[in-house]
Amino acid sequence: MAYFSPHRLLPLTSKAPKCPKPKIPEVSLSFFSSALIPCDTRHSNPNPTSRGESSLHHFYMNAKASNLASRPGFMRRDVLLGTLLGATSFPFLAFGSLAESDLLGSFQAYEDENNKFRIFVPEGWSVGAGETNRIKSVTAFYPKEVSNSNVSITIVGVGPDFTALGSFGKVDAFAETLVNGLDRSWQRPPGVAAKLINSAAANGLYYIEYTLQNPGERLRHIFSAIGIASNGWYNRLYTVTGQFMDDEEENYKSLVEKSVLSFRLI
């Protein structure tokens, strides 16, 4: 269960004020948890064939069997992959081409000085921030009207062997392995169908675009940006996830896509 506190978004280019942590009311993650797809470790590839698969293979392993734990406070590798998959758990604009001028008028800046990131979110969207038992920080942005569209940012601690995105392998191999780990369309009866659309590395981040669709349900479009940074004590993995449903594309695609592409580590 996560705990969220509502915050007012800031005017463009302003910074979040420093203030004591308020008492945070308990709020369900249901506004975007429908995107969460559990990783089925029974079907992971035990014999990796690429560098990307090799680094990701450890994430699929059961924690009790692999015992891949580092210092207290760091996430096990299998849990970390679950976060990458579940924190969605996106064709992008030209990677790296988004200028701040493209966001003026319809977006607001949100800057987190404690967690060292900045993102532009659609004007009028609500924001909630908090943490869970395993995730050091969760920030979610979502429209006031009822919708499955949203943008979320999760931050987790990772072990000292993960110093850069290259630790996960090249972006294309990483993205392919990540999305293949979600796909269950080959099962009988078929499960969720996951399809990789695009992947690229730019701005010190990995960008991944893909779709998810459960049998009989609407197609879900996912845009994600992944980065690593250190706070001076330990390395942290940032996963930015934007999503919208196929029938909401006209209203939310551009907003979600631009928001994810605007994310920067500061």
UniProtKB/TrEMBL annotation:
Top-level taxon of origin: Eukaryota
GO cellular component term of the entry, any: photosystem II oxygen evolving complex
GO molecular function: calcium ion binding
One GO process term, biological-process aspect: photosynthesis
Pfam assignment, any one: PsbP
Signal peptide region: none
Ranges of residues in domain PsbP C-terminal: 106-264
InterPro entries, per the entry: Mog1/PsbP_a/b/a-sand, PsbP_C
PANTHER family: PSBP DOMAIN-CONTAINING PROTEIN 3, CHLOROPLASTIC, PTHR31407
UniProt protein name: PsbP C-terminal domain-containing protein
